[in-house]
Design goal:
The structure holds three protein chains of three kinds. In chain A, the strands form two sheets. In chain A, strands 7-6-8-9-10-11-12-13 form an eight-stranded mixed beta sheet, sandwiched between helices. Chain A has a five-stranded parallel beta sheet with strand order 2-1-3-4-5, with helices on both faces. Chain A is built from 14 helices and 13 strands. By secondary structure, chain A is of the alpha/beta class. Chain B is mainly alpha-helical. Chain B is about 70% helix and about 0% strand. Chain B has eleven helices and two strands; from the N terminus they run H-H-H-H-E-E-H-H-H-H-H-H-H. The longest helix of chain B has about 30 residues. The termini of chain B are far apart. By secondary structure, chain C is mainly alpha-helical. A two-stranded antiparallel ribbon of chain C has the order 1-2. In chain C, helix 2 runs antiparallel to helix 9 and helix 3 packs parallel to helix 9. Chain C is globular, with a radius of gyration of 22 Å. Chains in contact: A-B, A-C, B-C.
Chain lengths: ~425, ~290, ~375
């Protein structure tokens, strides 16, 4: 053996022995700290959003609105004297990045809670981590039913109506308006499409034809051709905005005339008409659903308040459905924070959401309870007419199981002063 | 049968845009012996220019002209300012610079224009003409096919009938000899890049109206498919690029239509293996198989 | 990629010593002296490096330990990858898919054990071993096809492989659970380390062990007869064949070894978060892996370390930049995310222009220059 080799070996052995003594004294200390992310003057919360990449169009506007709302609240003194700091992390809609940024937020930045993490495939992969860290994981921005598993993930909550609830209500309307018609389904080939189809088939039974698309393949022509060949009169579509536009454009191109009924996430008129440009006339007559005030309804007091905030803090972006979503979700969060009391802890926050009872911009109550972590309980239908999307008919509520679809008759709420909740 | 015809027409129209884009890749390969991974991002950048001009002037054709011009300039710029200075010690360095350029271009586009979709109007009607009850090609599809055809013919004429085309070919295939014969090899290289980027710009303008709209990532998927098409056809052959593009378009259409939209990447791989294991240099190659 | 003209292929790592052919002649003296000593030296180096990192992890906060763990997981991949591309001259763009193969193998194994209620410390090593085996098998299949193909054509096929992951996982949804992917029980530190032992530190140790084993094996492989065959095939296939090297077999073997490393790296990568999903292995990952090894310094294991560090830095760059600069909200929104990507793109370009041999090459040149200056007689 060479002398250098022997020296290296000796040094290595020595170091190895040294390293074998676990240095865990500092770990013990961490267990007994104060509430993470909460000081006398601040509450730090975080989120993961697709600010770049293929999912950024549209969705990147949500967190901008949420952030603007918190700036508005902070300018009026914050919540119980504490300013809300909203850390928005870009994950590019890649689950690997989501896992990183959420770990960074929780372990490094020590956020109090997560708010509005966006996307089903992205957020699904952090559920276990969030659970072991006992971080409140509020109002995930997706209609998947994954967030409603209180036994498995006790701190995770949904916010928007889930895709099955939507499917059931859309199908109920179709059943009333088009008795005996050939109803078909066009959906994304993941839980979004599948949950929606499940809801539709709970009401209508098996659909006449069903086709799927995948986000990495923009050729929707063959699927639309198949729906046309099957003689579909109504197409219920569970698609993201880009693919709603592509599919309806294809249908128009192929001379396929059917009533399109589109799930809320893919039906924001501002987004769709921007994308379609001159071809936006094909959106006329499209039926969709929503659960928040419509951005075009300028007489609505919520829209008026949110527009004020938008002009002051978020004027770089257009005010559209995504912005209203961001404002409304931030409003619910402030309600939850207030309900958690003057000295909020993670446990108190989760408990406050479980207790529920929040009413705000949304048309229906939330479903939150001890054993349900799902968000809004229903939707109201809307229709595109003369270049504007407006509500019609009653508001419906239901659940994602076998509960009946019932009309909800309570009048909508009006916003408090400055659209900041007080209780 | 109707379904088959329908899918065939659909495949031809998408295949045409893949062909146009594959053509741009082949041009760079012939001029500089490298696959330009930044081709997609460069095409998107020029398409932004094109649609900005189109919406400012109200004329699609002015926009198209502006895009192609921007392509010529961008191609020359990338070669003169960047690629020229990449060391040739390791051929992968050029690939990495191109990938860096992709990130840079997409990020800059996102900063300047935002990450959202911008509408991209087509100059012709996109509603399909029906043929015996089957939705066939739309006027726009015919324009795309025609434009690609014209470009191929023009390129063929350029390379075989004009002195400058011959010089470009000579400079690419035998740089040393060409230099001895008085060909300005360096200028030919710049010209090759400019030409390829211009064809890429045209392809970008043709592709964008058929997809989700104009956004920084609009060509990501198209690049992968077009690269496949160019490889299937043989990277040295413009005719191969066109045939490869149409072939890939057709196969993707049939596979999407009959087997479902998820299976296309698998179909692409099978096609590549089927072609390349028989002809390792692509369908239109004259090169012999690598002996094993 | 560029045409693989032998004349253009003066690999950065090629020593100035004997020609490729000379090094191959039977009985030629090995460059690194007697083999036993090489192994010992590498072993000692590995133990030293490992100990230093372990000492480091004892000082680090949880998230920083996860970063160390991710560097180690990526190191398994980049080390094997740089041997294939740098030393054997075969370009693969599909290593992200190979990582996915390893990751899914580990996830399926861990799930299967969990469902049957089997527990034990041996499960993880077994799963990782299976990941190596399955991925090496996949590498064998790709390698067999690859041995017939050159430059861009090989790149085309492997690029197609890189886009397969989402397709496969949705076609076989029952097994792979589509876009949502699979979850399995997280790896926890053993009880003897104490109840308050940082879980992230334990993960870093696992990843470190995997990385050290990989690098150790590869370092010896590179110095062995097989390593010289790899380089000979890259430099001149005809000459290599003349020297009695079975070219195709060498190329396929290189692919198998490289795939095995990618499988291990992918498996460890999955263990760090106890999840797999197709979205974690997009085409960009494969391209970023290639960038990492070229920027690090193609063909060198030290370069692979730089590459792995770079990959993790890339993942963490966006959040760092967003926090450092506070801008007016309108501008900030446009720059958010985009700025980080632009900076990274610029860095890639500049490094390639300034240091064509990658970071490792640059440091070596620098060191050589310093040494030359010291050796120069003082006046």
């Amino acid at each position: 053996m060479r002398p250098t080799t022997r020296r290296i070996l000796a040094a290595a052995t020595g170091l190895a022995l040294l390293a074998a003594v676990p240095a865990c004294a500092d770990d013990q200390k961490q267990a007994a700290e104060n509430v993470p992310g909460v000081t006398d003057t601040e509450i730090v919360i975080g989120t993961h959003q697709p600010l770049t990449g293929p999912a950024a169009p549209g969705y990147s506007k949500i967190s901008a609105a949420t952030k603007a709302y918190f700036e508005h609240v902070n300018s009026k003194g914050g919540v119980n004297g504490r300013k809300i700091v909203y850390k928005v992390m870009d994950d590019g809609y890649n689950p690997a990045n989501t896992e990183n940024v959420v770990r960074k937020l929780v372990l490094d930045d020590k956020v109090f809670a997560l708010l509005g993490g966006l996307g089903t495939p992205t957020h699904t992969n952090v559920l276990e981590f969030v659970k072991t860290q006992k971080v409140p994981d509020l109002f995930v921005s997706s209609g998947s039913r994954n967030w409603n598993q209180p036994d498995k993930y006790p701190t995770t909550f949904g916010w928007q109506p889930d895709y099955t609830v939507e499917g059931k209500i859309l199908a109920t309307w179709v059943k009333q308006q088009f008795p005996g018609a050939k109803v078909c389904h066009f959906g994304q080939n993941d839980d979004f499409g599948r949950d929606s189809l499940a809801g539709v088939e709970k009401i209508l039974g098996p659909v006449a034809a069903k086709q799927t698309y995948t986000t990495t393949n923009q050729q929707v022509g063959p699927a639309i051709g198949a729906l046309k060949a099957a003689g579909c009169q109504v197409v219920i579509s569970a698609s993201i905005p880009g693919f709603t536009a592509l599919a309806m454009g294809q249908a128009a191109g192929q001379g396929f005339r059917a009533q399109w009924v589109v799930s809320n996430v893919g039906a924001d008129y501002t987004t769709l008409s921007t994308q379609l440009g001159d071809k936006k006339v094909i959106l006329e007559g499209m039926v969709a659903d929503n659960y928040l005030p419509m951005v075009g309804d300028t007489a609505n007091p919520w829209i008026q308040e949110f527009t004020k905030i938008h002009q002051q803090y978020n004027s770089a972006n257009p005010i559209d459905g995504n912005a209203i979503y961001g404002y409304s979700m931030a409003y619910t969060f402030v309600q939850a924070l207030l309900a958690a009391g003057k000295d909020p802890t993670r446990e108190k926050l989760v408990e406050a959401v479980r207790k529920g009872g929040f009413r705000g911009p949304g048309l229906t109550p939330f479903r939150y309870s001890d054993d349900v972590h799902a968000g809004y309980s229903g939707v109201r239908l809307n229709k595109v007419q003369n270049g504007a999307q407006a509500y019609f008919g009653p508001t419906y509520t239901t659940d994602d199981a076998d509960a009946a679809v019932t009309e909800f008759t309570e009048p909508p709420t009006t916003p408090p002063a400055n659209a900041i909740p007080t209780t | 049968m109707d379904r088959f015809l329908f899918l065939t027409f659909g495949g031809l129209s998408t295949g045409a845009v893949y062909a146009a884009f594959a053509l741009a890749l082949v041009l760079i390969w012939r001029a500089a012996r490298l696959v330009n991974f930044a081709q997609g991002a460069m095409a998107v950048a020029t398409a932004y220019v094109g649609y900005a001009v189109a919406s400012a002037t109200g004329s699609y054709w002015l926009g198209l002209g502006a895009a192609v011009l921007a392509g010529l300039l961008l191609g020359a710029l990338v070669e003169r300012v960047l690629m020229r200075f990449v060391g040739h010690a390791n051929p992968l360095n050029e690939v990495i610079v191109a990938l860096g350029l992709v990130l840079l271009i997409q990020a800059v586009l996102g900063m300047v224009f935002g990450n959202g979709y911008r509408p991209a109007a087509a100059p012709f009607d996109t509603d399909a003409l029906t043929l015996g009850g089957v939705a066939a090609l739309s006027p726009y599809d015919l324009w795309v096919l025609g434009a690609v055809l014209v470009v191929v013919v023009l390129l063929a004429l350029l390379f075989t009938r004009t002195p400058i085309g011959l010089r470009m070919r000579a400079a690419a295939f035998a740089p040393e000899v060409s230099r001895l014969l008085g060909v300005d090899v360096s200028r030919m290289l710049t010209l090759g890049w400019a030409l390829a980027a211009a064809v890429g710009a045209l392809a970008g303008m043709l592709v964008v109206p058929t997809g989700l709209g104009l956004h920084p990532h609009a060509m990501d998927l198209v690049f992968v498919v077009a690269f496949t098409a160019a490889v299937v056809g043989g990277l040295d052959s413009p005719a191969g690029a066109v045939v490869g593009g149409l072939l890939v378009g057709l196969i993707l259409s049939y596979v999407t239509g009959y087997l479902g939209p998820d299976t296309t990447p698998l179909a692409v791989l099978v096609l590549l293996l089927a072609v390349l294991l028989v002809r390792p240099g692509g369908l239109f190659s004259s090169a012999r198989a690598r002996h094993v | 990629m560029t045409a693989t003209r032998p004349s253009a292929r003066s690999g950065v790592d090629r020593p100035a010593g004997p020609s490729a052919l000379r090094r191959l002649l039977p009985g030629a003296p090995a460059t690194a002296g007697p083999r036993g000593s090489t192994l010992l030296r590498h072993l000692a180096g590995a133990v030293l490096a490992g100990t230093l990192v372990v000492l480091l992890t004892n000082q680090l906060a949880p998230y920083q330990n996860l970063q160390v763990a991710r560097v180690c997981a990526f190191l398994c991949v980049t080390a094997g990858y740089t041997v294939l591309v740098g030393l054997n001259g075969q370009l693969s763009l599909g290593h992200g898919a190979l990582m996915a193969t390893g990751a899914y193998t580990v996830a399926l194994m861990q799930q299967a054990f969990e469902e049957r209620g089997v527990q034990g410390r041996w499960i993880l090593p077994l799963s990782l071993l299976a990941a190596v085996a399955v991925t090496a098998l996949a590498g064998l299949v790709i390698g067999l096809a690859a041995a017939r193909l050159r430059g861009p054509y090989l790149a085309g096929v492997t690029l197609a492989v890189a886009t397969l992951v989402p397709a496969i996982s949705t076609i076989f949804t029952e097994v792979f659970n589509g876009e949502q992917g699979l979850r399995f029980p997280a790896e926890t530190p053993p009880a003897f380390l104490g109840a308050y032992f940082q879980p992230e530190r334990w993960l870093a140790w696992i990843a470190l062990l995997a990385a050290l084993l990989t690098v150790l094996l590869l370092a010896n492989l590179v110095r062995s007869r097989f390593g010289r065959s790899l380089r000979a095939v890259r430099d001149d296939e005809v000459a290599a064949r003349l020297a009695g090297i079975h070219v195709a077999r060498t190329q396929v073997l290189a692919f198998v070894v490289s795939a095995g490393c990618a499988g291990l790296g992918g498996g460890v990568y999955a263990v760090l978060t106890a999840t797999v999903a197709p979205g974690k292995f997009p085409l960009e990952l494969s391209l970023f892996l290639l960038m990492a090894i070229v920027i690090g310094g193609l063909g060198s294991l030290a370069g692979a370390v730089w590459g792995a560090v770079l990959l993790v830095a890339l993942q963490d760059l966006p959040s760092l930049l967003t926090e450092t600069f506070s801008l007016p909200s309108g501008l900030a929104q446009r720059l958010e995310g985009n700025l980080a990507l632009a900076v990274f793109g610029l860095i890639l370009i500049v490094v390639m222009l300034v240091a064509p041999g990658g970071l490792h090459g640059a440091f070596r040149t620098l060191a050589a220059r310093l040494r030359a200056r010291r050796r120069a007689p003082e006046h």
